[in-house]
Specification:
The chain is α/β, with parallel strands linked by helices. The chain has 15 helices and 19 strands. The protein binds zinc ion (ZN).
Length: about 475
């Protein structure tokens, strides 16, 4: 762990506490932009990768900050788990809407970064005219800092929501996702909500001219499941080959899988995604999307889209071999050969059902199949018009008319666990970035500096629409 810098934000906060901040139609209070940057700077200096044990201290610094701006101590709870922890914050409303809370979730941990590989020190917030740089600056410490700033601003404003607002910052999203599972299993009451915003993913896309052209909202994730298939054989000396051979049998099975396509599947999310994406990309691919929406049995259109690695995942389950192991000596017949097959399962399909399909397609009952790890499957969150409208309205002052597009993710984020626990969850962030500039998990991860201002405006507007309009404080 790196030595941490002293946190300077507290002195700034004592200045801010005395006066009432002004939010306007056009901009969030500049002081909160400074606070968000200060929180981000502190966050980046903490190496919260798996195994570093740095998450609890980070959670604790956020807790102390929130208490210092007026949250009651019992409203800011640290939930430890091994070397990491979650932070759960409750902003109590007046209950006048009669509705369950809204949950906001981000994660405090990061993917490891080797400073030797980076142009800049990954654990120091660096900047140029356009971007901030550092590990976690995009994924996901930016949004941790934004949500913390948002709750600070609301508290200092004297805002009373018409329902409770909850923050859940998890501590191991990039590794085992055990903290989110602990929260949904053992702390359900603390995080129970009508729906969750997983503020990690989704968000705005900029083109090369820097113009916003779409805003994505994640409604669903495919189930990430990995299978191992093994062929076994008594083996023997390679100078006396047998007619049966573990490597040949495994290859045969893999070739059958190669020739197989899972059937086309669509849902409201993917059809709306195609419908709204088609006019943005145009050409053959856009045309194929339009045709599938009109006629999901249009084989030519399906095949054209299946050729596009970017879109094949939106058409149904995919399974693909990713690793091979087999044999034990160059002059021995193999006693076993194993392939690892990674699947992204379309929402609504089970892991076991998918395995049954693979078994059947492989066409050899002698093969041994196993599930690797513990896949979590979740159904798509319902298409929620209230949320989609709130998002469109909240983007109106920033990027008027930008199309809001529902999306199905192909990995597993914390949102999959909230969905699996029956809390519909929507992945969305206020960040607008050119996909080319997004280096999440990679070297020189960056985020546009203007995202701080835009995210604060976006989320402040979201709160107004989903938890009641701002009340002017009486001071
Ligand atoms: Zn993330």
């Amino acid at each position: 762990m790196l030595p941490l810098k002293p946190i300077v934000l507290f002195s700034f906060l004592s200045l801010a506490l005395g006066s009432s901040p002004s939010w306007s139609e056009t901009g969030a209070d500049a002081r909160y932009e400074i606070l968000a940057e200060s929180l981000l700077r502190d966050a980046i200096a903490r190496e919260t990768a798996f195994g570093m044990g740095a998450v609890p201290a980070y959670a604790n610094s956020l807790r102390e900050h929130l208490i210092s701006v007026g949250f009651p101590e019992n409203a800011v709870q640290i939930v430890p788990l091994g070397e990491t922890a979650s932070l759960v914050v409750r902003y109590t409303g007046d209950g006048s809407s009669g509705r369950k809370p809204i949950l906001f979730s981000s994660h405090m941990d990061v993917v490891p970064a080797d400073p030797n590989d980076w142009v800049r020190d990954p654990f120091e917030l660096q900047e140029d005219d356009t971007f901030y740089y550092g590990r976690g600056v995009l994924d996901n410490k930016f949004d941790v800092s934004i949500l913390t700033t948002l709750f600070t601003a609301l508290r200092q404003e004297g805002y009373v929501p018409n329902r409770d607002l909850i923050i859940a910052f998890t501590g191991d999203e990039e590794s085992y996702q055990a903290t989110v599972q602990q929260l949904t299993r053992d702390y359900r009451e603390a995080i129970d909500a009508e729906f969750a915003f997983v503020v990690d993913g989704g968000g705005g896309a900029l083109n090369d001219a820097g113009e916003a052209f779409q805003f994505k909202v994640g409604f669903a994730e495919k189930t990430y499941a990995t299978f191992a298939v093994t062929a076994r054989n008594p083996g023997g000396h390679s100078s006396m080959p047998r007619s049966d051979n573990a490597i040949f049998e495994l290859s045969d099975a893999l070739q059958r899988l190669q020739g197989y396509r899972f059937p086309l599947q669509t849902n409201e999310i993917t059809l709306t995604y195609f419908e709204r994406t088609a006019p943005l990309i145009g050409g053959d691919v856009g045309d194929a999307m339009t045709r599938i929406v009109a006629d999901p049995s249009d084989t030519e259109a399906i095949n054209l889209l299946r050729e596009q690695p970017e879109y094949v995942g939106t058409l149904g389950t995919t399974c693909i071999p990713t690793m091979l192991a087999g044999g034990h000596a160059e002059n021995a017949l193999p006693q076993s050969a194993t392939a690892t097959v990674n699947c992204r399962i379309f929402p609504g399909n089970g892991v076991e059902d998918t395995l049954d399909v693979l078994r059947r397609v492989a066409g050899n009952s002698e093969l041994e199949w196993g599930i690797v790890g513990e896949p979590v499957s979740s159904d798509a969150s319902p298409f929620n018009t209230e949320i989609m409208t709130a998002i469109s309205n909240s983007l109106e002052t920033l990027h008027p008319g930008v199309p809001v597009i529902p999306q199905m993710g192909s990995g597993t984020t914390d949102g999959a666990f909230f969905r699996a626990a029956g809390i519909p969850s929507y992945s969305v962030t206020g960040i607008f970035i050119n996909p080319k500039d997004s280096f999440a998990h990679g070297l020189n991860e960056r985020v546009p500096k203007v995202s701080i201002r835009e995210s604060l405006i976006f989320w402040r507007a979201m709160i107004d629409q989903l938890a009641g309009p701002t009340r002017v404080p009486s001071n």
